[in-house]
Predict the 3D structure of the following.
Amino acid sequence: VYQKFYNWVTLRGTKKIKLLDVNSILKKYFSKGVDILSVDVEGLDEDIVKSIDFKTHRPAVICVETAVYTDGSTLSKNKGIISYLQEKGYFTYADTFVNTIFVDYELWKKQG
């Protein structure tokens, strides 16, 4: 992917590694919950966010890369991630264009 947008990048090799899904990671390392989840996985952000089991793991804050490259090396917003998290009860708290910070609306109301 990088080579498509950065022609000066050279691939030196590849390695196969065992992957864990996000729910397995949260269960194994954050069994008591996680307050802030940051997702930046170079093109897989939407897939990872959509695979989170929000009934079991519900971060108070999610920071996710919502900028995506389109043809011509221009950036646009990934509206799929934004609308999905809104459907799950999160609202956009802040946006740097590259990253968007979402907050659980129900938790926000309780703090208010």
Notes: The mean pLDDT is 90.
